[in-house]
Design brief:
Helix content: 25-40%
Strand content: 15-25%
Number of domains: 1
Number of strands: 14
Structural class: alpha+beta
Length: 408
């Protein structure tokens, strides 16, 4: 029997792009828009692309420069006296430099995890008492299409919910983060994830500065630092996480190759050029454009991953091994956002997976001020004003003054 490639292993639980596109409906008007966009791609591919050899060469030159990134964590971040707590040893730091994550560790008891989960679900059930940080327009669209979930509604809610802030400030988490990021660590965005029975998986992705589907990077370092530690996730399981209910998956060491992250941003800035580089057939291009225009954020991530693989080649991943991260309720996983990660679909009938995450960065990183951003909805791309929210300190004190920090 032929051995599975890394890519085949990564795509366990995911259907083809066509199956993804067939999973949501569009209107006749939206279909006409797709055909119009497809006409533009054809014209571009036939008449303009042949004249853009330099642009194509520049793209692949830029990608080549992102293949062998380094990650070096200063060993003088913390004093010897601090190492007696939960600060990382040199061996731990060596592991993180090589793998881009720390193995799960206990931070809450099972009872504490259950209590916090119930508190967060209760908050969501009453729409967080009207304190939603996405725009009302997006909320209305999501509710109209029965897609309003805690993943969107729960953005930044740790600013309101003290028990969440207290969780991420526990020394088991905070001191480990400080070992890697330095003596001033803040959370710039908190989130919650609730994967219901039957929910699909989240496709592989990586992120350094969190541009996402917006117009600019949300994290802007003011000091030289390796891309892999611009942002770390402290991901806390509030239920057991298994392959069946949708546990996280990692590609350890992949934070040294940022080509996928680069293509995510590049494809948004050069839509016609990027689409014209893809293999062409009418059915395939219709599928790509349908997802690009009307897929939600997680569905659009499938498109970006699949099309990036077309450009990078299927052997792009063969130097890495997939790790499925099984976790117990109350355990925390710290990992670089630039380390490629994904999650399985939830194939159970009644077992939900629930988690909370703090996205953390050093205080010398500027969080982009409020402005216009873009959100993917079932009715297309929607521009909205980024919430002008503060951050909260996870470890140490802010001496830079670049960002708003709540005083609590």
């Amino acid at each position: 029997m032929m051995e599975k490639s890394t890519l085949q292993e990564m795509l366990k639980g995911f259907g083809s792009l066509k199956e993804v596109a067939d999973g949501f409906q569009i209107t006749a008007v939206q279909s006409l828009r797709i055909w119009g966009m497809m006409g533009l791609v054809i014209l571009y591919k036939v008449f303009i692309l042949p004249c853009q050899k330099n642009k194509k060469k520049q793209l692949f030159d830029d990608l080549g420069s992102l293949k062998n990134l380094t990650l070096t964590i200063p060993r003088n971040v913390q004093s010897k006296s601090k190492r007696e707590g939960y600060f990382l040893s040199n061996e731990d730091l060596d592991f993180f430099e090589e793998k881009g994550y720390l193995p799960p560790f206990q931070v809450l008891s099972e009872h504490e995890a259950e209590q916090l989960k119930e508190e967060l679900q209760k908050e969501f059930s009453c729409d967080f008492h009207g304190e939603i940080y996405l725009s009302e327009k997006i909320e209305d669209i999501e509710k109209r299409h029965d897609q309003w979930q805690i993943e969107g509604a729960g953005l930044y809610q740790a600013l309101r919910i003290k028990s969440l802030r207290d969780l991420f400030r526990r020394p088991q988490i905070a001191e480990r983060l400080a070992s890697i990021l330095g003596d001033e660590v803040m959370c710039w965005r908190s989130q919650m994830f609730h994967k219901f029975p039957g929910a699909g998986g989240t496709i592989w992705h990586q992120n350094a500065t969190f541009r996402e589907s917006g117009k600019y990077a949300k994290l802007q370092p003011t000091q030289k630092m390796d891309p892999a530690i611009i942002q770390l996730n402290a991901w806390v399981a509030l239920t057991d996480c298994t392959e069946e209910n949708g546990c996280l998956r990692l590609l350890p060491g992949s934070m040294t190759d940022a080509r996928m992250d680069y293509l995510y941003s590049y494809s948004q800035d050069n839509k016609l050029f990027y689409l014209s580089l893809q293999p062409f057939s009418f059915s395939y291009m219709y599928t790509l454009i349908k997802i690009a225009l009307y897929g939600t954020i997680f569905i659009k991530s499938v498109l970006l991953f699949r099309t990036a693989v077309e450009l990078l080649g299927e052997d792009y991943f063969d130097k890495f091994d997939v790790v499925d991260v099984h976790m117990k309720a109350g355990e925390c996983l710290i990992f670089s956002s630039l380390n490629m990660h994904a999650s399985y679909p939830n194939t159970t009938k009644e077992d939900s997976r629930f988690s909370a995450v703090a996205r953390c960065t050093p205080n010398h990183v500027k969080v982009a001020p409020s402005g216009v951003d873009i959100y993917s909805t079932a009715e297309g791309l929607v521009e909205y004003k980024l919430p002008d929210v503060p951050n909260f300190q996870v470890y140490g004190k802010d001496t830079y003054g670049y960002n708003k920090i709540i005083d609590d």
